[in-house]
Amino acid sequence: MGGFRSLPARAARWQPEQGIGLEHVSLGPAPTGFLIRGTVIGDRGGIPYGVFYRLSCDDAWRTRSLILKATSGRSIDIHSDGEGHWHEAGGRPLECLDGAIDVDLAGSAFTNTLPIRRLKLAEGACSGSLTMAYVPFDTFKPVRDHQIYTCLTAGSLYRYEAADRSFTVELPVDEDGLVLDYPTLFRRIPVDIS
């Protein structure tokens, strides 16, 4: 199986291949699973953005909550039962996200880690079509998106495909399942702790 080591507390950073921006993520174990805090700055379509996100996952790497706040003041706070049923913080169901286990944030290289770690795919295995809760930074309105992951080399290389076959890329990952290079979109940069 394509398992990864137990996740230590750590930080990671990515830069976009084009334009100016940065994603900084701090992640590690939490009492009920894993906690991820990230900041993303950049621009899409010439419109600059700055966002902070807080993701919590259970021990099986299923997303249980997402808080997303923009410097513009917009925000969302959504929660999942881990089985594909979502609701707003106030309890209103979000049927538009039915079936989504993972989230995918526009402008984030990190969120590929969620299905990669959760699925534990064996070499050569394919996830089939996964439903994602995709959040674009221009609207902050989560929508369902369909993606496919295939393990090419267990623990180190995965293929990501949009289910409609409009985009495919091979993603090398480190020992924690964090993307090292996302060709045409992001590249990992060192986190200087000195």
Automatic annotation (TrEMBL):
Pfam families: Glycolipid_bind (PF06475). InterPro entries: Glycolipid-bd_prot_put. SUPFAM superfamilies: PA1994-like (SSF159275). This is Uncharacterized protein. It comes from Afifella marina DSM 2698.
